[in-house]
Design goal:
Elements (H helix, E strand, L loop, with lengths): L1 E3 L4 E3 L7 H7 L7 E5 L2 E3 L14 E6 L5
Parallel strand pairs: 1-5
Antiparallel strand pairs: 1-2, 3-4, 3-5
Length: 67
Amino acid sequence: MIRVNNGKFEIEWEEGMTVDLLLERCKFTFDMIVVKVNDKVIPRDEYKTYKIKDGDEVGVIHLVAGG
């Protein structure tokens, strides 16, 4: 099981799960986001290859600009 955003979502882990796949499963579609896995920021260019392990804690942060 993977906890997302402090348990707001819990996603069933599966072999080969990547950040990209998790974002799709959680229906995160906003372009401006930052993803952390176990408090490590994952670069956007690694979303398709970074493997998430069973039990990982994932944080998805939406970036919003204002003025």
